[in-house]
Design brief:
Length: 274
């Protein structure tokens, strides 16, 4: 691959068979449709390019890996029929594309990885964190939930107890705790995650490609039935979740920079149906 994506928020560089994907959409690398489609196009090209033997995903922003999806964009789409199903299906396919690459992938995480940022990291094969990194799935705080592949893979990485705490309470994990529970593979001094990830990528790129592809496909087969079951549940209920009064209230509170009143939103919705 020789050409970089045209999207301003993403950069692509290559070095000796290692591809580096750098997110750069200030202030927090929020993933909008444009950036996610560019990432999809890039990963699709990587998948077909045998000269790329490993990829690293990093951020150009020192204090944020990725703060999640663009909630202002989500709010604009909120009342469009079918938008929740469309968004969920696209994001599922995007993260599965990343997870299913024949090449190994490494997330180099500095600063906050929240929502889709944690999902992006979970979809990678390895995660290297700077000591100041934080991982969180705060979607419940706006009445939502994370994507299909994260719901399936997170408990396999961190165990059911930690997964429940991250999902049902929205509690974040600092880098050291993320290492202890298995969410990350290594913690390095702040500012050194990308350097360490590139060193690991060079080791992985030197491995025999046929063995790497075989082993990655075998590991993927072990999780496929679980992902399919979670997919059926999520796709059957995501539209109702997206249109529930709690999520409407959560998005409104985010835009207005206030605490959400979920109970009040439910009560007002009930009053409106009488």
């Amino acid at each position: 691959m020789t050409s970089a994506p045209a999207t301003p928020g993403i950069r692509w560089t290559e070095e000796a068979g290692v591809g580096l994907v750098t997110l750069s959409r200030p202030p927090v690398n929020a993933l909008n449709w444009e950036l996610k489609r560019a990432l999809q196009d890039l990963l699709s090209a990587v998948r077909e390019d045998a000269s790329i033997r490993c990829i690293v995903l990093a951020s150009a922003l020192p204090r944020t890996f990725c703060a999640g999806s663009d909630l202002f964009e989500l709010a604009r789409d909120h009342d469009r029929p079918g938008s929740a199903t469309e968004r969920t299906r696209f994001e599922f396919e995007l993260w599965e594309l990343l997870a299913g690459l024949p090449q190994p992938s490494i997330a180099a995480v500095e600063g906050h990885a929240l929502g889709s940022g944690t999902e992006l990291a979970v979809a990678c094969d390895f995660r290297i964190a700077g000591s100041g990194a934080t991982f969180g799935l705060p979607e419940i705080k706006i009445g939502g939930g994370p994507g299909i592949q994260t719901l399936a893979r997170l408990p396999l990485l961190v165990g059911l107890g930690t997964a429940r705490r991250m999902l049902l309470l929205g509690d974040p994990l600092a880098a050291d705790e993320a290492l202890r529970v298995g969410l990350v593979d290594e913690v390095v001094p702040a500012g050194q995650a990308q350097e360490r990830a590139m060193a690991l990528a060079r080791r992985l790129a030197a491995q025999p490609g046929s063995s790497t592809r075989f082993l990655k496909a075998s590991i993927a087969a072990a999780t496929a039935p679980l992902i399919e079951r979670v997919e059926a549940i999520v796709m059957g209920g995501v539209e109702a979740l997206f249109l529930a009064p709690e999520m409407r209230e959560g998005i409104a509170a985010f835009k207005e920079k206030r605490q959400p009143d979920f109970a009040g939103a439910v009560a007002r919705a009930r009053e409106g149906t009488r």
